[in-house]
Design a protein that fits this description.
The chain has 430 residues and is of the alpha+beta class. It has a domain of 133 residues. It is built from seven helices and 23 strands. The protein has a 23-stranded antiparallel beta sheet that branches. This is YdgA family protein. Pfam families: DUF945 (PF06097). InterPro entries: DUF945. It comes from Marinobacter iranensis.
């Protein structure tokens, strides 16, 4: 029995000795895989790793993050360095700016520095945490200042990247200039994501901002209170289609010492074909990447890539329509000092048979929908610039008066939009 315990102890000791080396090897491979995945999945920034020096109990490496301006194609590079500690089941990466930026970082964070860490496990779990201490910076020459409270962000990634839980907490910030003051209070984001297939993700999210206030010289102070967005994307039992809905709410807007609210906007997508939606998303991403990569290059080649992406987008839109979908705003509700603006806008496309799909040439042909929006008449009367835009529509009969409100009703069918009895032919699309 004693020999058996000795053998077991020796085996455990051997595992403990070998484990950090094995974990270090797996960590390096995982980081290289993450780098490749990040660079291939989006065109806006590129991650580069250099000089990965792996030892027994730890490692260190340097790298560069290159961010590209999507409008101009200009690139901005930021260097970083990382220290890695190897454990028995995982590693901890501690990222920091290069030493040559120490003086600049010291000016902004004289006491405590930002901390970015990545904790990995060999079974495919990773946790990213970013802590940014409070900041107070003032420019004595211009009088400009920036104050920011301590913020915290965390992303926990499991199932080898197929599931992620994200949390961001930012209590607030204040920006001051001689003629401007902007304050932000209590920003919070919670997001759960689960990979379905290709470019399609499911999940739910909740973002909120307690207050945003903008005060400019010679202008009335503008304040937004309790802004929130809640969204959820789900799939049916067989994973062939997805439904998505989002609700945007704003409790109150205050301008020139007058407050009005609440405001609510609901957006829904229903019955989106998963494969077609994935194809559309991939084509849009490739089109954006072609525009960024082709900046300053061969314009003919870029045009060819853009045309190929556009053809893919057209086909994906046709496939989405052929499999049936609906989208729109089931609820629009915006408060004004003179009464609410409310209504709904919905568009649908029926599911087509195989024969109908083969004969389908455009999306618009089978689209149907309805529009119903009303607003207070006093809002138009009190704002001449709005009245100038609405008056021609009233004269044409597209907007009708019902008591103290103005109403616009429309129906989409057979390639035509009927607005209060005025039929407008619509051009075919796709």
């Amino acid at each position: 029995m004693k020999k058996q315990w000795m053998v077991a102890g020796a085996a455990i000791l051997a595992v403990g000795v070998v484990a950090p080396w094995a974990v270090g090897y797996v960590t390096e491979q995982q980081w290289q895989s993450v780098t490749t995945e990040v660079n291939q999945s989006q065109p806006l920034f590129r991650l580069e790793t250099r000089d990965y020096n792996r030892g027994y109990m730890g490692a260190d490496f340097t790298g560069t993050i290159t961010i590209q301006n999507p409008e101009t194609g200009d690139e901005h590079e930021f260097d970083y360095q990382a220290q890695v500690s190897h454990g028995v089941t995982g590693s901890l990466m501690d990222f920091s700016p290069p030493s040559e930026l120490g003086a600049e970082v010291e000016k902004i964070f004289p006491d405590e520095k930002p901390k970015l860490t990545l904790e990995t496990r060999i079974w495919g779990t990773a946790t990213v945490e970013l802590s940014v201490p409070a900041v107070s910076v003032i420019n004595e020459e211009t009088g400009e200042s920036f104050d920011m409270s301590e913020s915290y962000s965390r992303a926990k990634i499991t199932d080898n990247g197929a599931h992620a839980d994200i949390l961001m907490l930012w209590p607030g910030a204040v920006i001051r200039a001689p003629d401007l003051r902007i304050s932000i209070e209590d920003f919070r984001l919670e997001q759960t994501m689960e990979h379905l297939t290709d470019e399609v993700w499911l999940g739910d999210g909740d973002m909120s901002l307690a207050r945003l206030e903008v005060a400019a010289r010679d202008e009335p102070t503008l304040r937004f209170d309790q802004f929130a967005i809640k969204g959820e994307t789900t799939t049916d039992d067989d994973g062939e289609s997805i439904d998505s809905e989002a609700v945007v709410t704003l409790d109150k807007i205050t301008a020139d010492n007058e407050s009005f609210g609440p405001h609510r906007l609901e957006l829904v997508f229903s019955g989106l074909d998963v494969q077609s939606w994935s194809d559309l998303t991939a084509a849009l991403t490739d089109m954006q990447a072609a525009a960024l990569n082709g900046a300053g290059g061969d314009s003919r080649a870029m045009m060819q890539q853009q045309m190929e992406s556009m053809n893919r987008i057209n086909q994906a839109m046709l496939d989405l329509a052929a499999n049936g979908f609906s989208f729109g705003f089931p609820e629009l509700s915006f408060a004004t000092p003179y009464g609410p603006i409310n209504g709904e806008i919905l568009v649908q496309h029926p599911t087509l048979s195989d024969e109908e799909k083969d004969q389908m040439m455009m999306v618009m042909q089978r689209l149907t929908g309805n529009l119903d929006v009303s607003m207070p008449l006093a809002l138009v009367e009190r704002h001449p610039e709005l009245g100038m835009q609405v008056a021609p529509l009233i004269k044409q009969g597209m907007v009708v008066q019902e008591g103290d409100r103005l109403r616009i009703q429309g129906k989409l069918e057979d390639l035509a939009l009927d607005i209060n009895g005025n039929v407008i032919p619509l051009p075919p699309i796709f």
